[in-house]
Every structure is written in C-alpha cells, then in structure tokens.
Amino acid sequence: MIKKALKIFGILLILLVILIISLPFLFGGTIKDKIRYLANQHVNAKVDFTDVDISLIRSFPQASVVIDELSIINFEPFEGDTLAYAKTISLDMSINELFKDASEPISVQKIIIDEANIAIKTDSLGNSNFNITKKQDKTEVATEDKGDSFIFELDHYEINNSKLLYKDEISKVALIMTNVNHSGDGSLSGENVILDTQSSSEVSLILNDTKYLNKNALKLDADLELDLKNQRYAFKENKAYVNQLPLEFEGFVQLFEKYTEVDLSFKTPSSDFKNFLAVIPEAYAKNLDGVQTTGDFSVNGSIKGKVDDTHIPKMDIKIASNNASFKYPNLPKSVQNITIDTQIKNDTGLADDTYVKIDNLTFRIDQDTFAAKGSLRNITQNMIVDMAVNGTLNLANLDKAYPLKLEQQLNGILRANVNTNFDMQSLEKEQYQNVKSSGTASLDNFTYASPELPNEIKIKKANVSFKPKTITLDKMQVTTGTSDLTAEGTINNLMGFLFSKQDLKGNFNVSSEVFAVNDFMVAQNESTAVEVDKTNEEALQIPSFIDATLNFDAKKVLYDNLELKNTKGSVKISDETAYLQNVTSDLFDGGLAFNGKVSTKSETPNFGMNLDLSQIDIAKSFSSLELLQGLAPIAKALTGALTTQINLNGNLNKDLTPVLNSLKGNALAEILDAQVSTAQTPLLSKLDSQLKFLDLDKLSLKDIKTSLSFDDGKINVKPFDFDIKGIKVTAGGTHSFDMSMNYNVSLDIPAKYLGNDVGGLISQLSDKEVNEMKVALPIGISGNFSNPTINLNTKQAVTQLTQQIIEKQKEKAKDKILDKGTGVLTDLLGGSNKEKDSTKTTTDEPEDKLKDAAKDILGGFLGKKKKKDTTKTKN
C-alpha cells in the first residue's frame, strides 16, 4: 500500500510540475487578449508590447504575468510622441484569473513597473497628450459598471528607476522628475485605504525659462489616507527632505467636479541654522558633518485654497534667520552675522498676485559686509524686479569660508552700491528707458589664474557706473604676461543680457602699449602639442551672445613671429561673425591696411578679406607669412620692397586657420626694387646653372607688376613681361599650395648666347648683325619648387634663329643680284664704253653672266664660294 501510495503521489507530483510548466502556454493568450481588448475599448492611441510572459513558478502560489516593453504612442495633435513607455510591468494574481474570458475583470494583488518614462504635455492651444480615453455611450458605461478591465486589490506596488516629464506651454511650467522610485504597502480593495509609502526623486522645476530647481534631491516617507468615495487624500505623520533639509507637513487634497481643494501646512522640525545649508544641493554644500553653526533658520508656511482654471491656492511661506553663522571644519574663515527675512505670499488666489519679498539678506566675512533687499512681483506675467545691493567682498575669502569648487584662485576687492528697477517685458522689447538703474561698482586688484591661460590676468582697477539707459565702464586697467590693456565704453543692455537671454550689446575703446596674442592663447603641453585627429577637435567659436563693437589702438601687437606697430581699427562682433574694419598697421618696414570678416555661424567656418600691403620688405614678409609663401614661393630669393593687394575668401579649419585648397580670389603684386639670391631656392639655383649667359645673382628687378588668381588650391599667374639686363622675359603659369608647378618662361636673348649650337649659322653675319639679332628661348618649368625640372628648348630657338638668318641672307642676296645684274644689263643694252674682251669666246651670252653672278652670291651664302677655273675649256 505504501509503495502504491508513493507511486500515486509521484505521478501526481509529476502531473503538477507538468501543469505548472504548461499553464503559461495554455492561458498566455487570455492575458494578451485582455490587454489588447482594453486598449481597443478605451484608448485613442497606439498601444504595443513585445511579449507577455506567464509563470506559475516566479510568484508561486500566485501566477505572475510580465508585459515587456509596453508603449503608448500618441495620435494627432501629438503624432508620434511617446506618452508612456515601460521596460517591464509585472502583475501578480490568483491562478483562477487565468481562466477568465477576455471581457471579464481580472483581480491583481501586486504590480511592479520598471524603467518607465512618462511625458505629459499640454501645447499652446490647450491640447493635452494624456487625453486619449475614448468617448463612450451609456450602453458601454453600463457594461463597464457590470465589470471589465482589471480590478486592483493591491497589497504592494512599486515604480522603479523611472522618469516623469510634465510640460505646459500655456503656463510655461516644466517639471522633470528623474530617478523616480516609489513603493507602497497596504490594501487598495476598500473605499478607505491607508498606505505606507516611500518615495525618492531628483526634481528640476522651470518656470518662464527660469530654472528654480536643478536636480534637487527629494525624499518623502508618508502615510496616506485615501477616501476613494469622496476623493479625499490626507497626509499623516509625513516627513520630506529637500536636498538635506527636513520638512514635516500635514493636510489634505480633495477632488471635486470643477475644482480641487488644497489645505497643506509645513515646517522645519528644528530651527538649527544647519537647515539653511541643507537647502543647498549637497554637491555644493558638501558634507555637513562637523559644521559649526550658531543662530537659527526656519521655513514654515501654508498653502490653502481651491485650484481651478482661474485660481491657485493662497500661500504664505516664511524663510527666516537671525544673527546666524557657520564654519566648516577644514576652512580657516567663517560666515557671520547672517540675517534672512524672506516671504513668498499670495493673498488673493490669483497667480499674478504671487510675490517674493526680501526684507533683508545680510552676511559678513571678516570685516566685509554684503547686504541685499528687494522684491519680485507679478512673477507669472511681466515680472517686476526691484533690487538693491550694497557691500564689499574680498573674493579671496570666498573659498576660505565656504567649500566652493573653484577651478582657479580668485583675488580682489569687489565693491557695489547699486539699485535697479525694471520689468521683464521692457527688457525683452529693448525698451531700456523703462529700466531704472543707478549706482556704482568697482573691482580692485583682481587676479584670475586658469590652467587654460599661460599667465595670470590682473585687473588693477575697473569702475562701472549704472545709469538708467546704459552701464558705463569708466576705466579698466588689465595686464597679463607682457600685455597691457586700458578699456572704457558702454554696455547697453546688461539687465537684458542677465535676465532675458539677449545678446550683450555695447561699444568699447581699448588701447595698449604691448598686446601679445600668445598671452591669451591656451598653453600647450606635450600631450596637446602632439598632432591630433582634427575630426575630434573642439571647434573654436565666436560667441553667439555678443553684439558689440571694439575700437582698438595698440602701439605694438605681437602675434607668433610677427610684430605689428601702431595698429588701429575696429572689430564688430554680431551673429557669430567678427567684422574687422579699417585696420591699419606698420609691418615689415611698410604699411598694412585690412578689412574682412570671420564667421563661425555655419558648420564650416569661413572668412573673407581685402589686404593691402604697401612697400613692405620682401624678405621679412615672405619668411613670416605662410599665405605669401604659398602665393609666390620664388619671392623667398628676393630682397627689396613689394606692394600687393590681396582679395580672397574661403573656409577655415576648426582652429580658424585657412583651408588652403578652398581659397578663392585674386592678387595684384608690384616689385618696386629687388635683388636676387639664387641660393635661396632650388629653382633659381638650377636655372642659373643652365643659363650661363646670365648671372642672376647680379640682377636687379624694378617696377615689375603681375596679377594672380587662385581657386581650389591653384594659383594662376597671368603672363607678364620684365627686363633683365636688356633681355625681355615673359613668364606665366600655375602652381599649387603643395608647391607643384607648371610654368612657361620665354627669354628674348641675343643669338650669340646660343653658343656652339648656332656657331656655323652666324659665321657669315657681321659683328653688328650678330649683336642685334635676338631669338626667343622657351623654358618649361615643372615638378615642384624644392625639386624643379627645367627644360631649355634650344632646338626651337635654333630653328627660329635659322629662319631669321635665312631671311637675312635672302635680303642680302636679293640686293647683290640686283647690283651685279645692273652691270650685265648695261652691257647688253650697249650702255658700256668698255671694249669687249677679245679673249672671250662668242658663246658668252648674257644668260651665262647672270648665272655666274648668282653663283657668286649663293656660294657665299652657303659657304661654298669657289674661284672660277680659268683653265676650263670654253664652250
């Protein structure tokens, strides 16, 4: 019997295991159908999920249902927006629920939501993306009353690692809650529910583009009493933490058909001044352990009234501290005589009537006292600011009294006595006549050091005067490294810049005895000096928030290896573009005039410029300016003076250096007077060695003009003429910034310079004819400037010379034939008085005489003239 019983028990156990494993496959469709049924019946949005997993083991003896990657996507007017997404939703329920039909309600005892992302939005037209419930007729409502969907009889629920966004375009409110973790234990099955909840999150609050909270840590341990029938939710024995500040609160929220009633009060559980430091985010306040405090600090208030489309709750929140102090254990100084008297109040329930009143805010570090008072009114519409500050701060004491995380040490004395009154609308519309500011501020012996700057910046003195329409920089004296600056000017809209996100507008005059650009450049170490991948470099940008004009006058400007003297001009910065206007300077023993612009507004920075260099030293300019080296590399071999006008534009690299292959433009250059040193360039050195008849080192170039154009990395030199010791030279061609070239040069040289190649040709010419006869010698130049290929086309020159000599000798032959022919014709016509030669035969006809004369002439031309053979028998 025992064996039989054990055998039956074993069989039942195996069947139970098989049943537990197989049930999810048998009833999975029921839950999937249920979810789809609910979505189709109730939601006007696209609901989707990747899978539904059912297990009888995971939460045994209950069934566990896990929905993977559930998403709700909005239709119009929020087409494509994700209203809600959850990585997983886990539901625990009785196994009996798996056997229900899709239209029957399912009872759930436990729900866990992981990594949810919920975005609730209201647009400027009042449309809300959470309005996705389908409208139902009375028949459907009646059906629902009989029961469908899920019935939540929870004893536990969780929301883990989630995010909530609430954004209202009408009220300009944005609430962002990240790292949301919330859990509750209790019973949700009856009409009166008591829940024990724990919540934590990081909260950011933005109102009218002003960030009031920035990832402030919130914690809440609350006992909630839910009256579901009357929709009244009460808070009992609750404690919250704002950053490290504890708050106790009580009250209730009750929902009515047309409005919500709120009645809440809160206070700090103690009056220790450490509560004030706890309000500050822990990243800035640091660890409060060991901080010594005196005096008190308290926050208490009430929020009471109804909330509807017109009203908000009335509120009265007081923040106060009297004669308090604090000192961090590892810092040498303390902050003393702290007084805070601030109130946030609304007496009417209308949002526009909410105001912040600062009756007193005072503190002292050593002997320096700083105080502020004022108010912020009409904060939801056109906020009105009325503030006054008065006091002195030794900046060097700030991080000695408070654990500031400064990247560099600050020094200097700040003094301020300023009153200002303005409304935000006037700032936005740039109606600065409505901005009423008065007072002064000064900064003395201020020093600023940073790893990004090679030298410490020192401001000896800076005075600022506040006036109703403008803020005047009366005088500022700055030194750093070898540079000095003195500046004065006006800022037109400091308040608009600080409070209304406007571009900073102003005009400044700056003068300097010595301005070394390298004093303001980032110092490179070994790691930063190494060549890096330019695609990973951070691009230099012209600030987008500046709209200002800077007039400058510098006695000496040092940039890299350049020294510019008496530099004057102006730069206007606007819309991420710097416009340089009427810039003049003494440079390379000559003059510089410059106009141009640099823009970083587009993805690829670009520039354009007109550059006029007048009577500059060639050697100095071409050894210092990379651009000139690229435009005319051969000028490296010249010493003398040059005048040039350059007009070009192109793209810039991320470090704002020109992309040479992108340059387009033209240039006109004139060599006023120059000497040649062939040893400076391989091209002239090789050319000099092949042209034996020229000593290029002894040449003088004067008043030579040429024009250049450049496009896509190529420089085109228009053919131009010049004279070298009586030899006319014509040159033209192209080269690239990579120093490759293709030039054609023609020398109009005396024939004798062709040497042995034409010795036989010119032997019959007189010395005068040889000296006067010239021939074009073509020279082809290719390769690159460091390794040129020179092709002297002497064959073409010799061919040309031969043709010239033939033409010359033809002219001579023609003249000689005419001379000799004249005598023959005279004899034939009987015009001669000479007696006939009795020794000549009668066969000597006039035709023979002409032939003999021609032979004499042609024989001389061909170099084959022979004496007549007198022994030859007469015909």
Mean pLDDT across all amino acids: 77
Judging from the principal axes of the Cα atoms, what is the shape?
Answer: elongated
The percent range for strand residues is over 45%
**Structural class, from secondary structure content?**
alpha+beta
Quick structural overview:
The protein is an alpha+beta fold.
Pick out its properties.
875 residues, alpha+beta, 37-stranded mixed beta sheet, 15 helices, 37 strands, elongated, disordered C terminus
Question: How does this model look, in words?
Answer:
This protein has 875 residues and is of the alpha+beta class. It has 15 helices and 37 strands. It has a 37-stranded mixed β-sheet that branches. A hairpin with a 4-residue loop joins strand 21 and strand 22. Helix 14 runs antiparallel to helix 15 (846-862). The radius of gyration is 49 Å and the shape is elongated. It starts with a helix and ends in a 13-residue tail after the last helix.
How are the elements arranged and paired?
Elements: H1 2-42, E1 46-48, E2 51-55, E3 63-73, E4 82-93, E5 106-122, H2 138-146, E6 150-168, E7 173-186, E8 192-207, E9 210-227, E10 232-242, E11 245-255, E12 260-267, H3 274-279, H4 282-285, E13 292-307, E14 314-327, E15 335-346, E16 355-365, E17 368-377, E18 384-394, H5 398-401, E19 410-423, H6 424-428, E20 436-448, E21 457-466, E22 471-480, E23 483-491, H7 494-499, E24 504-516, H8 526-529, E25 546-559, E26 562-574, E27 577-587, E28 590-599, E29 606-617, H9 618-624, H10 626-631, E30 638-651, E31 664-676, H11 682-690, E32 700-711, E33 714-724, E34 727-736, E35 741-750, H12 759-762, H13 767-772, E36 774-784, E37 787-792, H14 794-828, H15 846-862
Parallel strand pairs: 5-6, 24-25
Antiparallel strand pairs: 1-3, 2-3, 3-4, 4-5, 6-7, 7-8, 8-9, 9-10, 10-11, 11-12, 12-13, 13-14, 14-15, 15-16, 16-17, 17-18, 18-19, 19-20, 20-21, 21-22, 22-23, 23-24, 25-26, 26-27, 27-28, 28-29, 29-30, 30-31, 31-32, 32-33, 33-34, 34-35, 35-36, 36-37
Helix pairs in contact: 14-15
